[in-house]
Amino acid sequence: MHEASVLMSEIVAHHVKDKKKIEIYDSCSGSGSLLINFAQSIAKYNDDESATKYYAQELKQNTYNLTRMNLVMRGIIPDNLNIRNGDSLEEDWPYFDEETAYNPLHVDIVLSNPPYSQKWDPLHKNSDPRFSQFGIAPKSKADFAFLLHDLYHLKPDGIMAIVLPHGVLFRGESEGRIRRNLIEKNHVDAIIGLPPKMFFGTPIATIIMILKRKRENTDILIVDASKGFTKAGTKNKLRSSDIKKIADTAIERKDIEKFSRKVSREEIRENEYNLNIPRYIDSSEDSETYDLYSTMFGGIPKAELNTHHKFWTTFPTLWNDLFKDINSHCVSLIYENIKQVVLKNSDVSKYLSLFHSKFTDLNSYLKQKLIIKNDTEALSYILLKGKDEISENLFSRLNDISLVDKYKAYQDFDNVWQIIIADHELIKKYGFGITKEVEPNITINTKDDIETEVQEGWKGCIIPFELIHKTLLKEEADTLKKKESKIDEIKASLDEIFESMTDEEKSDFEDALNKNKDDFTSTGLAKLMNETIYANIDSQEINTLNEYFSMLEAKSNKKEKEDFIKAHPNVIWLNMKANKDGTFSKSEVSSYIIILQSEYKFPEDSIEARLVNASSLLDTQKELKSEVKKEADALHLKTKKIIENLTDDQVFYLLELKWVKPIVIAMNDLPKVIIDDLIAQIKYIADKYSVTYSEIANNITETENSLVPMLESLVGNEFDMKGIKEFQKLLGDKHGQK
Fold first, then answer.
1. Same structural domain, 374 and 247
2. What pTM value is reported for the model?
3. Residues 293 and 321 grouped into a single domain
4. Comparing 96 with 107, which gets the higher pLDDT?
């Protein structure tokens, strides 16, 4: 609901932007979000908080209390609030009590999101001035009752926006008569179709209807905005760029192919006052087409390339650089490397130069607008009007540049703006010093379904630790990243070794695996190496040393040991440190055996060689993880100290990197997106016709011909052979074979 609320507020706020005093009414106020969002939208034009008076009515007592609380908490002056608890359809303004009589309520704006298709009591409503001019909504659906109620409370120059189910556009009988009267009396200004699953509690698609008491034009703007959204869990959500595009379209009443169209009253009459959006706008994707000639004979059809006429209009010389005529119907590529040709084209080069010239001073412009120290007035201005002023500046830079989707540019800007605005609110509230502060980094630990808050280090209130790592601590951070990358590489190598093991090998060496049998464990693998892999090494030197070790355990005398040593020159005894008497101790022999085992070369692809490699990798990984933990902790504390001791100039530099640079980069990347799209479209069409149907058919025929004799050698049971015979018959008949 929030995004639809913002959209409605943007449209109606623009309508009353020049008014000194404004009265607004929400007949089904709920939590008050429509009024709150309007307050934010109108602040761009009029920041006098006392200029707007708010009226609201809500049926449910608890929700009515929530409306008042929310509005006051958002800074709306209590004296400007007039909120009632009541049924808007049954207890309309004015109302009278024993002490006070209220004048009829007529306002500049009505915003409402009434309950959809709710039952109501239409009895005795024929004489009600709210409904008498248009008709009575059916008992089973109060949608038009709410709409007419809202319209009644508009001033002659007022505007209203209401959310309704799609059914109000085409349902017949009494609703059809009301719709006809609204159209003939020229009150319907625009209809905006929204995506489905936008509102909690209902999956249905809805519309926003914009109505006015008096209009100069007689057409109705119809907007199909059902395709532009992003997924948010199970719900669909309008992006900032979607809201901006819809609002601009509604305010400027623009015709946009497959999106919006002004429909004449005559056309609506011809459709018997049915306002169902697909009758007037086809927003469906164009279906895939295939050129028959190019499919059979090859070549790229000119007609299909010309569907991308916007590119050829912008880059008129590019066609001849890319294509040569085969005949009047199709062309072929001159060069295979499409990207190289496109980037070298003179028109493309001029286009890129023009684009970048428009944004040469963008960095300095944004620095001037955004990087402010302790100027409360300037901070307030940015919070209220900065987004619109900067986005208008970006749009003005793009005005003379074709192909660019300015709403994509707006979305790229808005993605960064959400960060900027949050930071500015903190700076306004706590002062510029907040840029040099850190706060506990709180995470949630869940154990036995119980969530507990735990501090995991620190984070910058404004300046992210990552930004310090990229700038003032780059060398230390890069060193740490290299070690972290090495750990990732080791993990990938271990995964590769594990995946190379057969099920039988995993079963034979399961002691080296974890409980889930999906990875190695360092302790299990180490034990396996010592007790099985190394113990089974068949090495003459190791076997001799094991014999010598047994003599030591049996406490053989000195002469026996000396004789053994002399009798076994296959052992390189000099690799061990001898006792004074020339013999060797148990520990020395054991250590040397371990060295020989670790140096032993198993056959390259044997399971033993792979497990030895895994064991070595795990040891290295353990050592690296220890180093990374120690260095990461030290870097974290050093980063905290640096943030707390930043100079103002350092803060300005870092804020430029955080706020300004991402916008500049996003804007400068816009032409790359366009050029990449052009290249992709050309490549797709070229690939589509790169192989003709004749070539495919010939390949199939050759394959089938080679298959026939192969079938002769197949054997099987009675039914297999019957199947093979039938298959041979089909292939033989197809190719004229007997």
1. no
2. 0.81
3. yes
4. 107
